[in-house]
Amino acid sequence: MNSFSFTGPYGEIECVVNHCPSNDVVLIMAHGFRGSRNGGGRSTAFANVAAGVCKVVRFNFNGSQILSRQIEELQAVVEAVRNKYKPKQLFLLGRSLGGAASMVTASRDEKINGLILWATPNDLRKTFLNALGDELYQRLDIGETLHLEDERGKMDLTPDFLTDLDKYDLSDLMRDWQERPLLILHGEQDVTVDVAQGRRNFDLAGGDKEIYTFANGDHTFTECAGEANATIVKWLYSRT
Q1: Averaged over 204-230, what is the pLDDT?
Q2: How many Å apart are CA 26 and CA 70, to the nearest integer?
Q3: pTM
Q4: Which of 2, 9, 146, 167 is 20 to 30 Å from the Cα of 18, by its Cα?
Q5: What is the pLDDT of residues 9-43, one digit of tens each?
Q6: What is the Cα–Cα distance from 135 to 137, expressed in whole angstroms?
């Protein structure tokens, strides 16, 4: 495992790379809301396994939770990976909000060969009502900045976080996803992004698509990460 850095649209981006003996296939991972490229160790564990079939690139968004900015950064990572590795195939894997960024990025770039959505929403407003709770969501929605502090640290969430979400219709993106491979994974016990959203993404898409739901899976796949990892690796192997 090594890393490389470049200057992105909002600062320096360091990409951690799990190498595969072949340079032909690259998977770029985008983390979720208030997450990180390590994913509490689960993303690191996945990358170690997936490196058996492809090169895996992970990075951190530069602090902003604004979806539009995350999309810009993900697009910059895609370009940097292409310049550095010149892959024959390039896949995106997005977790939760990172899945939304991956959906938008892939929809704009037909050279991205496939998309993996892990606990990814279809309804962004509903998702953040669930994530924040009614009181905090309403305060943000009427224009108040939220000052959040918990085990993940401190963060200010500004009202434009919500208004920016309104720029993106994920249902429309899925309706237009008709040819390239799509894999969806979702936990049936996910209370942040309910499993119905994952199923709706699947139903709207066309073409080569698969969905796997996990009966004991929560939003972070606490109890079923190993099974989910194996599912993704098998799917990648069959398409590379």
Answers
A1: 95
A2: 20
A3: 0.97
A4: 9
A5: 999 999 999 998 766 999 999 999 999 999 888 89
A6: 5
Report the interhelical angle of 67-85 vs 97-108 (nearest 10°): 60
Q: Torsion angle of alpha carbons 64, 65, 69, 70, nearest 10°?
A: 110
What phi, psi does 236 have (nearest 5°)? -60, -45
If one looks up domain 2-124+169-238 in CATH, what number appears?
Answer: 3.40.50.1820
CA distances from 56 to 91, 101, 147, 177, 223 (A): 10, 18, 34, 23, 23
Please give the pLDDT value at position 211.
Answer: 98
Q: Which two tokens stand for residue 82?
A: 């292409």
Q: Is 2 exposed, middle or buried (0-12, 13-18, 19+ CB in 10 A)?
A: exposed
Query: CA 111, 7, 15, 107: dihedral to nearest 10 degrees?
Result: -30
Long-range CB contact pairs, 227-233, < 8 A, 24+ = 228/118, 228/185, 229/45, 229/46, 229/49, 229/50, 230/49, 231/183, 231/185, 232/46, 232/50, 232/93, 232/116, 232/183, 232/185, 233/49, 233/50, 233/52, 233/53
